[in-house]
Amino acid sequence: MAGNPMDLGGTTVLVTGASSGIGRETAILLSSLNARVVLTGRDRGRLQETLARLDGQGHRVAPFDFNRPDGIDDWIRSLTSEAGPLNGLVHAAGMEFVAPIKFVRLKDAEEVLKINLLSSIMLARAFTHKACCAGPGSVVFLSSVRGTNGSPAMSVYGASKAALIGLAKSLAMELAPRQIRVNCVAAGAVHTEMLARSRDLASPEEFQALERAHPLGFGTARDVAHAVAFLLADTGRWITGSTLAVDGGYSAQ
Q1: Which residues are catalytic?
Q2: Looking at the whole model, is its pTM more than 0.85?
Q3: What's 152's DSSP letter?
Q4: Are 214 and 248 in contact (CB under 8 A)?
Q5: In the CATH scheme, what architecture does the domain 12-240 have?
C-alpha cells in the first residue's frame, strides 16, 4: 500500500508570517503532516503561541522583520547553519494597503513593495544557496486574487501580488534544473484578522458585496493552508510556475 503523498516527514519548512492568519494555520497543518517547521515573523510572543500549537518536535522560532530585505541573506545563512538546510519555503508574510491612487505617496508604495515583493526576491535568492536548500525544494508565495483581478483602491497592493506571479514563473524556469519548484497560491478573502479589519473599514453594504463576490462565501485560513501543503508535498512534484486560485470562485466570474 502506497504511503501518504502529502507526508512531509524528514523535511524542514520555513514559514513566514507565522504569527497569525494563513501563515499560522499553514505552520500548524505542516506540523501535522510531520514537517519540522521554522516559524518567522516580527512578534516573538505570537510566534511562541503558534509554536505551542504545533504537532511533533524540532520546531523553532526565528523572528525577522521583512521590512529589512537587505538583511535576509545573512539571516537565512545564519538560520540554516543552526537549524540545517531547508526543503521548503512558504512566504505568507505581507502587507495590505488600501488607498485610491490619488492618495498614494511614494513612501507608501515603497513600503508595500519592500515587504510584499522585494522580501520575496531576497528570500528566494537566499533559499537557493547550496548550504541553505537540501536537495529538491519547493517555494510557495502567497499571492492574492487582488493580483489577478482588478479592485478599486488596491492598485499598489494588487501590483505587488501580481508581481509575485511573474516572479514565480521566471524562478520556476531558472530553478527547475536544480529540482526546486516555485508556485503561488492566489487567495481570496478568508476569515483572518485582515478580513476583520476590512469589515471595520467598509460599510455593511460594501462588506456584504465582498462576500457575495465569493460564490462559495468567505474561506478559512485552513482552506489556503491545504493548497500550500499540496504544492509543498509530493502531490505537487510535477507542478511549477503555476498559480493556484483558492478563492471560493471569486476569479471564475
Answers
A1: 157
A2: yes
A3: T
A4: yes
A5: 3-Layer(aba) Sandwich (3.40)
